[in-house]
């Protein structure tokens, strides 16, 4: 994978995950689809996912600076 792709995917994924963590976007969507009971488990998925995307962005930034 291209070094810039790691950075771009990491930043994009982190922004989308942060929006879903901070705002009630997923709560509204889950309620609309009738699966509102799953809202309690969002933190177990979103926070590790945010860490993965931030790690990916950091790795892409580090590799881009090595050029």
UniProtKB/TrEMBL annotation:
It comes from Kiloniella antarctica. Gene3D superfamilies: bacterial mercury transporter, merf. Pfam families: Transport_MerF. This is Mercury resistance system transport protein MerF. InterPro entries: Mercury_ion_transport_MerF. The chain crosses the membrane at residues 12-39, 45-62. Keywords: Membrane, Transmembrane, Transmembrane helix. It comes from the Bacteria. The lineage of its organism: Bacteria, Pseudomonadati, Pseudomonadota, Alphaproteobacteria, Rhodospirillales.
